[in-house]
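Review this chain:
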Amino acid sequence: MSSAASRPASPSSGERRRGPLLPTVLVLAGVVVVVLILARFWTEWLWFEQVGFGQVIRTEWLTRGVLFALGFLVMGGALWLNLRLAYRNRPMYVPTTPQQQDLDRYREAFEPLRRVVFVGAPLVAGFFAGSAASAQWQTVLLAMNATEWGSSDPQFGIDLSFYVFSLPMVRFIVSFLMTTTIISAIVAVFTHYLYGALQPTGGGERITRAARTHTAVLAAIITLAIAANYWLDRYSVLSNAGERFDGASYTDINAVLPAKAILAVVGVFVALLFVWTGVRGNWRLPAVGVALMVVSGILVGGAYPAIIQSVRVNPNAQNLEAEYIQRNIEATYDAYDLDRVEVERYEAETVAEAGALREDADSTASIRLLDPNVVSPTFRQLQQNRQYYDFRDTLSVDRYDVDGESADTVIAVRELNLAGSQERNWVNDHTVFTHGFGVVAARGNVTSADGRPQFMESGIPSTGVLGEYEPRIYFSPNSPDYSIVGAPEGTDPWELDYPDDAAPNGQVNTTFTGDGGPSIGGFFNKLLYAARFGSEQILFSDRVTDESQVLYYRDPIERVSRVAPFLNTEGSTYPAVVDTNDDGQGEVVWIVDAYTTSNEYPYSARQELESAITDSLTEQDQLAAAALPEYINYIRNSVKAVVNAYDGSVTLYAWDPEDPVLQTWMEIFPNTIKPISEISGSLMSHLRYPEDLFKVQRELLTEYHVTDAATFYTGGDFWRIPDDPTSGQETPQPSYYLTLAMPGEDEANFSLTSSYIINSDERNVLTGFMAVNAEPGDTPGEVAEDYGTITLLELPRDVTVPGPGQVQNNFDSDTAAANELNILSRGGSQVIQGNLLTLPVGGGVLYVQPVYVQSSGGTQFPLLRRVLVAFGDEIGFAQTLDEALDQVFEGDSGAQAGDAGVEPEPDEGSGAGGSGDSGDPDGAGDTGAQQQLNEALAAAGQAIEDSNTALANSDWTAYGEAQDRLQAALEDAIAAEEELYGGTAAEDSSGEPTEEPADG
């Protein structure tokens, strides 16, 4: 035999190559997994530490970890133990029966997998159970650190902290244990059956003693858990949702509570029967016990309360439910902070008289003409400056001192808009275009002569009345996902600051010098952030240096939600320029209102948040209720959060330090929330009453303005929130920030307002008006005494005061106004009706609506051209609010509006009731053209009426003649416009404006 044949065969070269391949792949896969995990968790840790809220993430992760471990061990351990017990106590000899012969095949097939299943099943179940338990970290922390509420429920006399803090955790524990036991029982019974310890059919012993004891104990634990749930239901019934009111009713107290107690006792008794069965071996008694539980549940838990409701309550409901309705009313007022509601009768007049507004001069002068939901395109056109800047679709209303007086202001931040950048690449998107620049603000109660906003802060760099402040906006709602900023000292700046024709290359650059994000300079951090953001450029870019920081989580609402996950945030944020230094240097901050909520407050009315907060504005802008829970029955605006627009620093202030929920969270996270005493006077002056809380309260007051239980039960005096008449949809009208003096008040305050109408689909009649004092003052660390006071005006029931929908109909159908608006909309323009404001002034109710006009194509931005005013059935329609008020109030309103003295530029008409001479008084040509325009408008109006009459009579000849006259009148009106404007408003043959306003 040859030597080659005698040598052992060596592995093939292919096998040698495959040897180390699999371990290498596994190692690389493991490294990738570790990097991805670290990219998520380590970068999250770095962010929390940098922003100064490391304690929050440590506490959350530790609590989640402990709960996960407990849930994992309880569920996994229970399954493992029950599987082991069932398998270990399997019978040694199984009777030979057809059924067992069939099971033998399954046992043989299952045996190779038994070890895997016995270990894997508990691991999988434990993982899911641990995840479910870890999600309850807030519930557990609240229960373990519960603060005494200081008031008790009206039924059991237990402190409310039990219901809000302790009861949810106890219910979770009982439910978790019952679920664990049920799953364990299912697994144990199946295992006993598989291995022959349980034989449902056949002769002889049907269950072994070990299997009987095992299943009996599990059944006893399940029954005890059911009994515990019945007992806890006695407390939970106090926060039940009812048909007419929430909380326990007469039937709940007198039938359901005793029934739950009886069922709990029955459950304990049946559990003892199961234990007895495990010892003695007789299943008949627990079977009877289970039947007793079922029958008791049907008769005692279901039939008995139904009989009481039908026989005793329904015939006498108004009297019997009165005590419990009163509990509901009082609890609702406590839970929703409605104790400061002041209900007043308001004998509203509907006849406008001369001088009626004389006593309301402050309110009249502050009436806001700029609609923040309409004028954003105008801000963009006049102040955007470059395509890579932008303003939000909905602007904010604030107040600033102008010439020593507080003035309502429409304010917007010039945010960065990467979509407007012409050169999109990684370098530009993440290292060059890193921030917005400056704010723009305009007076709310006056516009320029041509209908443009009268800017009090504008330009880039910004100039105006707001003084000096840090203008760079690195953190805002529309900021990019992440930016890498900072550079070594002495490096030429590469971050675009703002455009400047006098600067080299037409722009000024800057370098971020704040502390806004974690360091990204080291290789390890580069690697993790490259994995997190999916950008390999982070590893190789020369602009990522040792001095670099990465900015992310840049939306102010998101930042607040992350550093304070125990709070629920407002759906929108608003900017403010506040003074922070003694030298007067200010900063731009974002203010976010945050809430503590609960759904466990006894007897309080339950609110569906999405429904309560939704209005025509949130529908349009898709603002959020997502940050709030689905249902609540307790809410407090407990925290004011402030996010610095330059460095992203987050500061939380305890706005309602008496809130027990906030007190509990402050125990859990000490030193994370600053006391209200640290709020500066400048910041205090820009805080305001939050919209979401106000909308929740106004929704409740549609019913809970009725505080008498008997009247509440009938529901005959309930109101509803009017639909927004300008939206064209059946969505509630938004609430509006206004500066006004309520009837009987001597001075005007910044307020948040809304109105109510009769609860009918057919009639739109005003029944109430709600305003909350939204002005906290400007004293450092001290809130004004009247802040948060809600004034609810109840209008007389025997006087028909038009509601917003009825007023809008009057505006739209007014002949003079409709004719002029038709002319404006026919001439290649589009008419936009702004927010319909409601003000209780002049002894009645005044409605004001700004009317904007913009081109129907090409460059579009709305300009204020008209103002509609209504008081009772009187309507005014003019180029200024001051004129329109005088028209309504017999030529003299008695007060001046904010635009009094503003000479509007010549426009398409003088408005209803106007003098017809709105042109230049010194220009005879303009006067003649204005007269020609007025005559043309009148002729057009008459032609429209004649057309409608002819159309109704099917007189087609007359209709054609009227249409010819209408066309001629329109041509005359356009010719008059051209003479007045010198071609500014004229249209070319394509329908596009021949001359566009210059970019501001």
User: Anything to note?
Assistant: Residues 984 and 997 are 9 Å apart (CA to CA). The chain has a mean pLDDT of 86. The chain has 30 helices and 32 strands.
